Amino acid sequence: MRFEELPTPCFVVDEALIEKNLKILSGVMQRTGAKIILAQKAFSMTTLYPLIGEYLNGTTASGLFEARLGYEAMGKENHVFAPAYREDEIDEILSICDHIIFNSFSQLEKFKDRALRAGRKVGLRINPECSTQVGHEIYDPCTPGSRFGAKREDFRPELLDGVSGLHFHTLCQQNSDDLETTLRAVEENFGEWLPRMEWINFGGGHHITRDDYDLSTLEACIKRMQEQYDLKVYLEPGEAVALNAGYLVASVLDLHKNGIDIAILDTSATCHMPDVLEMPYRPPLFGSGESGEKPFTYRLTGQTCLTGDVIGDYSFDQPLKCGDRLVFGDMAIYSMVKTNTFNGTPLPAIAVQDKDGDCRVVREFGYQDFKMRLA
């Protein structure tokens, strides 16, 4: 199947671009000895797990179901972190995860001994209280009132016996200068406990495969923690694995006018790309320009009843017409993992584009996928 023959709406992930990203990540691993694992919360397309597993050390999960996915579909190192673990899930988590990271000393006190008896590596998430994000407080784990991680004032050293690693995750789509700043705060607040540890996890949010990313600073940060504290270093990017490696193909269903030209698509911001509304951000669209840049500007919208189901304003060289296909870029990350069926909106199909340019649909969704989520 060729790209232009795919059904719409459809997520398409480019295998060659995924591998390009993986080779960059693999280079960091080879030059530093750090371990990199896939954060499944951003990208969990199991069709490509065999390829990802050729390059990365494993997966990390945010709870039981993701942990099972990593265990079953990749079968390498399997890490998990959750703000709190459920009593009725913890034993299964311990049976399939080799690293379990606790969010607080109360969780550590409750479950640490059970994890150690299971032979698992036990970690503690720390909050270095160092915000490096601007304008995205919803994604800032160091914001005042955050539920994430133990602060220095929370520390109970008597509970650190058996804890072999510390974990922090404070970044979101950021460069390595922000990691460098964060590491200084980690050392200032928690440096006295670092020599007791075997490993440290830098978390995710590192845009390592972005064109302007400073790899040399990242690698210097890794080597400093290795050499100064004799620590094994983990990173768990999600976006960097699939950054700019996917598309969402949609079709124009109808055209409307209300002070501005409006195109109603067979996709939806709220159902298929919710980060457009949550972040918010304007997804790239091939062949388009900013509002007013090209002769014909349209507001691209979805099918749902939500008035704000708006993807954004885009301009085009020619007028849009019903049936036109539009291709949004960078749609592999935080897209298919966050889709929903509000209003009974069908989920997009999922396809892979192989290295020769051929496409194959690996999953399609229908009415039963909507119905089974309801009671």
From TrEMBL:
GO terms for biological process: lysine biosynthetic process via diaminopimelate; nor-spermidine biosynthetic process; spermidine biosynthetic process. Substrate binds at residues 239, 275. The keyword Lyase applies. Keywords: Decarboxylase, Lyase, Pyridoxal phosphate, Spermidine biosynthesis. Its EC number is 4.1.1.96. InterPro entries: Ala_racemase/Decarboxylase_C, De-COase2_C, Nsp_de-COase, PLP-binding_barrel. It comes from the Bacteria. SUPFAM superfamilies: Alanine racemase C-terminal domain-like, PLP-binding barrel. The keyword Ribosomal protein does not apply. It is an enzyme of class 4 (lyase). This is Carboxynorspermidine decarboxylase. It comes from Paenibacillus contaminans. The lineage of its organism: Bacteria, Bacillati, Bacillota, Bacilli, Bacillales.
